[in-house]
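User: I'm writing a short report section on ligand binding and want a predicted complex to refer to. Could you take this sequence and nicotinamide-adenine-dinucleotide and write out the structure as tokens? A short remark afterwards would be nice.
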Amino acid sequence: MIIHPKVRGFLCTAAHPAGCEKDVEQQVEYVKSQGQVKCGPKKVLIIGASGGYGLASRISAAFGSGAATIGVFFEKPAAGKRTASAGWYKSAAFTRLADEAGLYAKNINGDAFSAELKRSTIDLIKKDLGQLDMVVYSLAAPGRQLADGTVARSTIKPIGEPFEGATIDFNSGEIRPISLAPASDEEIADTTKVMGGEDWELWINALLKAGVLADGCITTNYTYLGSEVTWPIYYNGTIGRAKEDLDRAASALSGPMATVNGKAYVAVMKGLMTQAASAIPGMAVYLSLLFKVMKEKGNHEGCIEQTTRLFDSQLFSEGELRLDDQGRIRMDDWELEDDIQDYIRAQWSEVTNENLDEITDFAGYREAFLQMHGFAFDGIDYDTDVDQNVSMDLVS
Ligand code: NAD
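Assistant: Sure. The structure tokens for the complex follow:
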């Protein structure tokens, strides 16, 4: 089938298998080019392993220190004329590359919030790996089915006051005003159920109880703080409130993790184009400005550069961790440099349809969106027939 992007709003409902494979190959090449991480992890579980920061963490662990990895994700295979999801193609590509490199890689596709999936993951760890030395929790989900069968939904809304901002239409490149009413208390609580730290605690406590975390094991969860211009919709909004709960969970996990001489860390990552980030109103303008100024300065990073630097210079380095006053690891250091933020603050209210390509890198932001789904890669002929059915071995 010939596959072109199908973009509606902030969603792209098609993915290209060859482009997704290329994306993973490029990430693997980047990690290999950085050399092996001394004392890197050897047996890693990644929850949310098929996109963005989770996939990049998996690649950094596997190809940066030869780790065996188990990836948990929620992705769809192709069905009829519908392509598979990008995360499906990328996980299949990762597994092939890991196999070729002689690295153990197994995948579990299903709802990571469920108790059944936690149990089957533990069974697999016991059977194949024995104990883990790292657990990466990198879920970004629109909803969570709770134990009583009800579903909590995550919403992206301001708290207390309405939000007036702008977004950029991926198709037309037009800037559109957006306004959002403040979240209700229930929406705030539900977003915290989905994106807060509770499920991370459930996972880690279940893994500890099963005895599958090795002495010195570490676990990470990713958060975003961002710049003051996005605080009204992010940091001070429903998602920011949910993310605050990660700090509570990290602290609640410190006692249980100490029983295996382990640690739980929240790592503050850079703002980037991922499936989850593309859904946040207002982020398009911010990230387009950020990409422009960081690329000009020469310190722009994607997910793979971020996770590789996290592993190499922080988690598995011999030096001291660079922690903030909340005990979080800061990987947003370059994003928050004064000259970067000065540029964004100065241009924030100046962006118009006319100067979009001049003062922002919307073109780069849009390209990152298309590449996330396997499109816009050089060297791939998107008018050639490809097989949309790509198989992947899954552990059920
Ligand atoms: P993403 O959308 O690229 O990936 C989310 C992953 O979660 C995918 O592997 C998906 O399959 C999986 N997933 C979703 N629902 C699931 C379910 N019910 N069961 C199993 N797997 C499920 O997201 P991302 O942007 O990489 O986000 C990962 C983490 O990084 C989040 O905590 C996010 O807040 C954080 N973060 C993101 C950014 C950013 O700019 N994108 C910045 C800092 C921190």
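A remark for your report: The pocket of nicotinamide-adenine-dinucleotide is lined by residues 48-54, 72-75, 87, 111-113, 138-141, 222-224, 269, 271-272, 274-277 (CB under 6 Å). The two ends are 29 Å apart (CA to CA).
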